[in-house]
Batch of 2 targets.
Target 1
Amino acid sequence: MNGPSTATCKQEPGAIVPVVDFQRCEGKGDCLRVCPENVFEIRRIDDADFQSLGFMHKAKLYFHGMQVAYTPNADACRACGLCVKACPEHAITLARPQ
Ligand code: SF4
């Protein structure tokens, strides 16, 4: 079964949140541009998150300027799926908050 992935979903805010895979994210910012709820922020990856990556992913991120997408406003997510579709690296999935 497919998860929520279309712009027609009308979830309560925060019932579903975007999860960014830092092994894929290159901080290109398409998510930030398309999100109608201002969920995303593009900034330098935290040291702990960087250290959790393997060597190849560290090298890739270093090459791309150490920028990734964080979700400081995840509680506002409406599960519209626009960020999932917009991400050129397929780095975003939608999930129930942990
Ligand atoms: S699913 Fe929609 S509301 Fe939620 S973070 Fe992505 S673009 Fe924003």
Note: Residues 18, 34-37, 39, 77-83, 94 surround iron/sulfur cluster (CB under 6 Å).
Target 2
Amino acid sequence: MTLYSLYAQRKWDWNPIETKLAAVYLHPDLTVDSFSPSEEEIESVKSEVKGCFNQMLELEPAFGPADIDKFPKTGTDFDCAWCRFQGICKPDLLKTEQS
Ligand code: SF4
């Protein structure tokens, strides 16, 4: 949720610590959990996002082709059941499901 306050800062120049964030749960009962993020929470989220971004860049550069060896196929068909890349990755598995 705190990441939304950073989006609001970028998009509308809002001060993220003055952003009121609200999670609205509909089940089992209507519950609203709202808060304004602290500076520590904002810095923590920034650090986490930068860390994730750097991990992605290690796997795949922003420019140029990716190294396919860094993306091994999963070993179990169970993991592939809902994957949209079955047609190009495991076409035999797709044929089995259609028959
Ligand atoms: S079908 Fe999807 S989940 Fe399965 S190995 Fe290929 S890319 Fe990975």
Note: Residues 73-74, 79-80, 83, 85-86, 89-90 surround iron/sulfur cluster (CB under 6 Å).
